[in-house]
Write a structure and sequence with these properties.
There is one protein chain. The protein is α/β, with parallel strands linked by helices and about 325 residues long. It has 2 domains: about 200 residues, Rossmann fold (3-Layer(aba) Sandwich), CATH 3.40.50.170; about 110 residues, Formyl transferase, C-terminal domain (Methionyl-tRNA Fmet Formyltransferase, Chain A, domain 2). The chain has 8 helices and 18 strands. The longest helix is centred in the middle third of the chain and has 25 residues.
């Protein structure tokens, strides 16, 4: 088939690569306009644009699809289908209907659970043990379209948003090629999403990364995992920002009572044990503002923490 591809962040690159290796033709790649990024605020191309350039695929960067020119540009490509992965722009109804067979989205959850912007983070915060990829035909409403393919992926106890992101990106690439093959063969079947089990994955707010040590230890560990590598869970130590990169539940038998939540109960090479409202969290890697992340054993050489209290950021 003659395909178009619309995506912007790194998550979409694996699918772009998989389609480029497939027997289908990528006629064009759509991605968001270049924008300032990083400390220097230099204008940078999106990861998808950079990869498309390396693959020598034409790139189009409309600021919006809500103009006749943008829609005409898409129609002029005479696409069989458009694959959309974390594109970041709303596609109007006219655009969704422009490709001969429609537009298809790779979504990083088992729909209808976690419709919306941040399904990976929300799955980890909720303590889900399973996630996956859903390929759906797009319609005007948010992530409500019929499903053509679903594949599950277990969430490991040490998965972070970063590790889960990478595994799901590869799975999405595999599944979209299979789906496009089925679509080309006329064997693809779409089924409506279940009416029950709908949840929404709202966009992540940096304020959510602030650790509340009065919560139970399990919730704090989920928070640390969900916000690695961004925006990173954080607390405060003596009024200074303290970012927590890696943490786990302390071994059974570690007693917090009668310690105030946030109190450091132990600080060794094995980790820094912090009392929570219920249970104890063991911090494995942490970082003071302006410094590099350090393993707990290295950190305590310069910052003895036993008895110190971490507070909400």
């Amino acid at each position: 088939m003659r395909l178009g591809f619309a995506g912007t962040p790194q998550f979409a690159v694996a699918a772009l690569d998989a389609l480029a290796r497939s027997r289908h033709t990528l006629a064009a790649v759509f991605t968001k306009p270049d924008r300032p990024a990083g400390r220097g605020r230099a204008v940078q191309a999106s990861p998808v644009k950079q990869r498309a350039a390396a693959l020598q695929i034409p790139v189009l960067q409309p600021a919006t699809f809500k103009t006749p020119d943008a829609e005409d540009a898409l129609r002029s490509l005479a696409l069989d289908a458009l694959v959309v992965v974390a594109y970041g722009l709303i596609l109007p109804v006219g655009v969704l209907a422009a490709p001969r067979l429609g537009c298809y989205n790779i979504h990083a959850s088992l729909l209808p659970r976690w419709r919306g912007a941040a399904p990976i983070h929300r799955a980890l915060l909720a303590g889900d043990t399973t996630t996956g990829i859903t390929i759906m035909r797009m319609e005007a409403s948010l992530d409500t379209g019929p499903m053509l393919a679903v594949r599950t992926l277990p969430i490991a106890s040490d998965d972070t948003a970063g590790t889960l992101h990478d595994r799901l990106a590869l799975l999405g690439g595999e599944l979209i090629v299979e789906t496009m093959d089925s679509l080309a063969a006329g064997t693809a079947e779409a089924e409506p999403q279940p009416a029950v089990g709908v949840t929404y994955a709202d966009k992540i707010n940096k304020a959510e990364a602030r650790i509340d040590w009065s919560l139970d230890a399990q919730r704090v560990v989920r928070q640390v995992r969900a916000f690695n590598p961004w925006p990173i869970a954080e607390s405060q130590l003596g009024g200074a920002q303290l970012r927590v990169w890696e943490a786990e539940l302390a071994p059974r038998g570690t007693v917090a009572a009668p310690a105030v939540p946030g109190t450091v109960l132990a600080a060794t090479n094995a980790g820094i044990d912090v009392a929570c409202g219920v249970g104890v969290v063991r911090i494995r890697t942490l970082q003071l503002a302006g410094r590099k992340p350090l393993a707990a054993g290295e950190f305590i050489k310069a910052h003895p923490l036993l008895g110190a209290r971490l507070t909400g950021a």
